[in-house]
């Protein structure tokens, strides 16, 4: 049974055991080049920067030369204080990077769901075996239910905030009106989000094709970022570096739709488990500007109802406790979990293991009590002989 789609096969790549091992590689340089964990997760920057784009052999495209610029020029020698120049230079911000201040009135109206979100994160961190998911390939009992509860509370917080801010008419990402935002990648995720999304999409019949799209887009994102790398070592990039900012912008300008978007209906297929970076994103009219290839995209008006900073920090601490080392992007995170689970689902403790069929669906157990079952064939013959 072929449980792992070709898009995420374990074929060795450039000295790595598998594509997703390469995809998971991350490195941050000196202290002058780092940003806070919360900003790293939610600002939309990447820590994946190996010398070869992830899953390059899967898409059939030849990767760009290592360290080459947009015109294939040799890498330039960085100045000793180039990281300091990057810090003071104006940052390139995408629509999801825009920070919207939630007024005190809105936070007060959403006090109950905010308190509930903190409670659920604390309960997730207290679950027995939360740090053993990677080794056991099992989640603690009640893990996925807690994530669903957290997402519901966050939705309640966003609803209360948008009502208090008069944003009821704003389009949401993942809806036909806000579908343009689904083409403005990348979408950041935490480890708990990635696990919940993987549990949902792994059972789709077309998951092999979805996985292929995730791998191809992950590779393209890496290639676009690396095209602007000018450092002496092309395998290392600063988190706050200009190459990352320009690469993200170029990748977003491609306008590639999210693999989880139903392009015919304009709706997110994983609506109930979509990332927080999509749940927070609201587009004001004219909503067609949300598409990265729209001529007025630079003037799109958005509001991002982010999780308060303390909840963000709590989620980041939970990610560290889980110790999965997932990339902070949905495209990479889902593939890493697929590799971890060896193509299967990641069940909770005490939950029956569900095997995956070749069609991407959970295999159903055969009903051995039907009349044509093998165990009844011998009895039927014996009855006929007696008559």
Fold blueprint:
Elements: H1 19-24, H2 37-42, H3 56-59, H4 82-88, H5 104-109, H6 111-125, H7 133-136, H8 143-164, E1 171-172, H9 191-201, H10 207-226, H11 242-253, E2 261-262, E3 267-268, H12 276-279, E4 281-283, E5 302-304, H13 309-322, H14 330-340, H15 374-386
Antiparallel strand pairs: 1-4, 2-3, 4-5
Helix pairs in contact: 6-8, 6-13, 9-14, 10-11, 10-14
Walk me through what this model shows.
- This protein has 387 residues and is mostly helical.
- The chain has one domain.
- It is built from 15 helices and 5 strands.
- Helix 6 packs antiparallel against helix 8, helix 9 packs across helix 14 and helix 10 packs across helix 14.
- The N terminus is likely disordered.
For the largest beta-sheet, the strand count, sense and barrel status come to:
3 strands, antiparallel
Outline: globular
Q: Give the class from helix and strand content and strand pairing.
A: mainly alpha
- Order of adjacent strands in the largest pleated sheet: 1-4-5
Our measurement of the CA-to-CA distance between the termini, rounded to an integer number of angstroms, reads: 44 Å
Oligomeric state of shown chains: single chain
Number of strands: 5
Mean pLDDT: 76
- The H/E string reads HHHHHHHHEHHHEEHEEHHH
In DSSP terms (H or I, runs of 4 or more residues), the helix count works out at: 15
Count of the separate structural domains:
1
